[in-house]
Amino acid sequence: MLDYQHGYDLEFNPATYRFDYAQVDESAKIIAFAAVRQKQDAVTKLKIYTNKAGNVPLTEAEHSAFVAYIGKVGAAGIHYEFINQLPDEIQLTLQVIFNPLVLDNTGKRLNADSYPVRDAIANYVSGITFGGVLNRTRLIDAIQAADGVDDVILTEIQHRPNGGSFEVVSGQNIESISGSFIVDLITDTYTPNV
C-alpha cells in the first residue's frame, strides 16, 4: 500500500507475473500510514491516510485511484474493505493529584508555560501505532510519568468514530475504526497532594 504512486499507471511484468511501476517517483507516494486487518468473514480491512499533516484521509479522486491500484496489485480472490476517514475522537475525564511545588491548580507548570498532563496525553495518543489501540493502562502510565503528577484517576473515556456519536468505553483497549485517534476534549480537575 505504501508503494502506491498517485497518477502513475501500472505495467504488467511478465518476469514476476505482477503489476509494477515503470519508474519509482517518491514524491507521488501519497500513502503515509497503512494498517491491514483480517476480519472473520474473510474480508481484509485496509486503513489508510495520506502523507499530509494531521492524519488526513484520501480525497475522493485519490481513494478511487488507490482502490483501482489495490485491485491490480492485491492477491486474487481477496475481498477488501477500505477505511479512509478522519481520526476517531476521544474525550477524557480525569482527576490529577499533583505536587503543588511543580504545578498550579490548572495543571500549568509553575516555572514554564506548559501543561505536563495535557502534553503527556497528546504524546501518548500521537505515539499510538497507526492501526493500533489506545490502552487505558498505558495512558494512565503516561500521565503519571508527567512532571508534577503524583497520581491520576481516569474517570471516563468516551470514543467517537467519524460520523458517530460519543460513547463511554469501559474496556481496557479501544480500537480506532479509522486507524488513529485525536483528543477532542480533556475535562481535568487538579487536587494538590498536601
Structure description:
- With 194 residues, the chain is α+β, with helices and mostly antiparallel strands.
- The chain is built from three helices and eleven strands; from the N terminus they run ββββαββαβαββββ.
- The chain has helices at 60-73, 116-126, 136-144; strands spanning 11-13, 18-20, 31-38, 43-50, 79-83, 88-98, 133-135, 149-160, 167-169, 173-175, 181-192.
- The strands form four sheets. It has a four-stranded mixed sheet, with helices on one face. Strands 3-4-5 form a three-stranded mixed sheet, with no helix packed on it.
- It is elongated and about 75 Å long.
The number of E-state strands comes to 11
Helix amount, in percent? 10-25%
Mean pLDDT: 92
Cα distance, first to last residue? Answer: 54 Å
Poorly predicted parts: none
What's the overall geometry? elongated
Which structural class fits the helix and strand makeup? Answer: alpha+beta
| Rg computed from alpha carbons, rounded to a whole number of angstroms | 21 Å
Q: Approximately how much beta-strand content do the residues carry? A: 35-45%
Topology order in helix (H) and strand (E) letters: EEEEHEEHEHEEEE
The major beta sheet can be summarized as:
4 strands, mixed
